[in-house]
Amino acid sequence: QSALTQPASVSGSPGQSITISCTGTNSDVGGYNYVSWYQQHPGKAPNLIIYDVSNRPSGVSNRFSGSKSGNTASLTISGLQAEDEADYYCSSYTRTSPYVFGTGTKVTVL
Amino acid sequence: QVQLVESGGGVVQPGTSLRLSCAASGFTFTGYGMHWVRQAPGKGLEWVALIWYDGSKTSYADSVKGRFSISRDNSKKTLNLEMNSLRAEDTAVYYCARGEDFWSDSPHYYFDSWGQGALVTVST
Prior knowledge:
The complex is a heterodimer. By secondary structure, chain A is mostly beta strands. In chain A, 0% of the residues lie in helices and 44% in strands. The termini of chain B are far apart.
C-alpha cells in the first residue's frame, strides 16, 4: 500500500487561507468517505483534527475544514495563525491495508 | 480523560527482539480497536498494526508482517507489540492509538487518541 501523496510544504501569511491536498486512489481516498487529518507539532504526538472527510472533533477550531473530490481529499485552514505551524497528515481507510497515511505536509506561517 | 502511555522502548541490536506496551485509561478499553503507528526520525507516519476490541482479529503492515505481533490484555487494559528480528529500518517512535469504536452506530475509521510515543532504536 503506497502512501497518499501530499505536498511537502505549504506556507501562508497570518489571516490567509491555505489548502493541503491528499491524493490517493479509488482503493482508498476515492473508495471511502473515511479520510482523516492529523496535526503534529514538533516532538508531539499527532492530534486528530478532521474525520470522515469533513467532521471536526469537539474542541477543534472551525478554522479547519475538510472536503473530498474523487481520489483527492483536502484540508483547508482559514484565518491562518502562528499556532497552526505544524506538520499535517491525511489518512484513509483502504481496501487492503486497512489504513494508509499521507506523506505529510509542513505548514509554515510566514 | 483518555490516556495512553507507552513503555518498553530502548536501544537494541539488529536481529533481536523488543516488547512495547501501552497502558490505557479513561475509557472502556474493551470497546475499541487499538493500533500501533510508527514514525521514523524525520519521516512521516506509518500504520503498523491493528487488533480488534476482543483480540479476535489482527492486521499488519507488509513491512512488519511475520516479525511483529500485536496483542491485548483487556483485564489489564494493556496493548502490546512484540517485535522480533528487528532491523535498522524499524528505528522509530512507536505510538499506540485508539481506533474503531465497535459499539458505535457509526463507522469509526480514524485514530482519535494517541500516546506520547516510545522510541525504538535498532543499531549496532
